[in-house]
Amino acid sequence: MTLPDLLRQQAQGCRELGSPLYGRLLSRVADDVERGGVFAGIFAGHEDDRARSAVGLRLLGAVHRLVLEGRAPDLAAHYPSVGGVPGDGLWEVFRAAAVEHEADVRALLEIPPQTNEVGRAAALVGGLMRLHDQTGLPIRLLEIGSSGGLNLNADRFRYDLSPARCIGDRHSPVRLDRPWKGDESAWPAGEIPAIVERGGCDPDPVDTSTAEGQLTVTSYVWADQVTRFERLRAALDVAQRHPPGVDRATAGEWLRDRLRPEPSVVTVLWHSVVWQYLSDDERAAVNAVLASAGAAATASAPVAHLSLEPGGKLYVDKFAFVVTLRTWPHAPEPQVIATAAGHGPPVVWR
């Protein structure tokens, strides 16, 4: 697949996931690259990138950062994240901002997107509730690809599931309104179980206690999705009071020291939209550690693998995401327990 093809595919994904602004911009970028325009030069060295590099999202995050820093005022007039309204001339000012700050944009193209999508917590906490229903045990939570680790505080968010049902922290500034859809009889029952230990890792973690870290994670939120901005800002506030604790380490290395059965808790490895960014060797390392921990698991010290990742060949819709759960010792085969959108809601339980 050529670079223009990848950019058009991502443009379609943006439109499918509710960002007409980014869909429009990436379509124009793809045309420009195909013609050998300015973005062909900006993307120099990335012509052979694979889809999992998400190079289109890297570009959009880099330019959005310029807007958030106040360095692209003409473009800011079109970006809802800073109060703008998309209108005529959007493409021209977008291209001009990228050209003016080409060196900075090219540098940011080397960094994978640091998306701390709080909405994905709506799917992940439901998986913890399913685990608790099966085991009755509290959770020992390990996350790979944590970035800023905001979703390690998932139990400290409020989830208004229906007019009659609210779970999580009722006083949390993070509020997800009706994130679960479909047949309510399939929804996980009860409350979010207690998380007695939590921690995460990332090869390049973001310190969200700093202004720089907050700018980084904010820049990767799609600029016309204001609700996501509101959730992120609230989650950053929660993280100031409950620092997540993310270690600088690769996934396999970090898990080797931590992913093991512990008595009287469910040890859970979870991740969301991370797998595509891992190398084949890193995936193999994670799977090896997981297999070893699973082999040592017992009914009183179970191990689980909970993920929210693209559905791939499981679904005709290439933009479908699935929530998958494996548990040892009793159910080690992957089971799809829900489907979701790329940013979480709506989550439909099975």
Overall description:
It contains twelve helices and twelve strands. A hairpin with a 2-residue loop joins strand 11 and strand 12. Helix 4 crosses helix 9 (211-219). The protein has helices spanning 3-16, 20-34, 38-42, 55-68, 73-76, 90-100, 102-108, 121-135, 211-219, 226-241, 251-256, 280-296, and strands spanning 139-144, 158-162, 165-168, 175-177, 180-181, 195-202, 246-248, 266-272, 303-310, 321-328, 331-341, 344-349. It has two domains: 3-108, no CATH class; 118-349, no CATH class. Strands 5-12-11-10-9-8-1-6-7 form a nine-stranded mixed beta sheet, sandwiched between helices. A three-stranded mixed beta sheet has the order 3-2-4, with no helix packed on it. With 350 residues, the chain is α/β, with parallel strands linked by helices.
How would the blueprint of this fold be written?
Blueprint: H1 3-16, H2 20-34, H3 38-42, H4 55-68, H5 73-76, H6 90-100, H7 102-108, H8 121-135, E1 139-144, E2 158-162, E3 165-168, E4 175-177, E5 180-181, E6 195-202, H9 211-219, H10 226-241, E7 246-248, H11 251-256, E8 266-272, H12 280-296, E9 303-310, E10 321-328, E11 331-341, E12 344-349
Parallel strand pairs: 1-6, 1-8, 2-4, 5-12, 6-7, 8-9
Antiparallel strand pairs: 2-3, 9-10, 10-11, 11-12
Helix pairs in contact: 1-2, 4-7, 4-9
Largest sheet: 9 strands, mixed
Estimate percent helicity: 25-40%
Number of domains: 2
What would you call the structural class? alpha/beta
Q: How would you describe the shape?
A: globular
Estimate the strand proportion: 15-25%
Order of helices and strands: HHHHHHHHEEEEEEHHEHEHEEEE
Rg measurement, Å: 20 Å
Termini gap: 34 Å
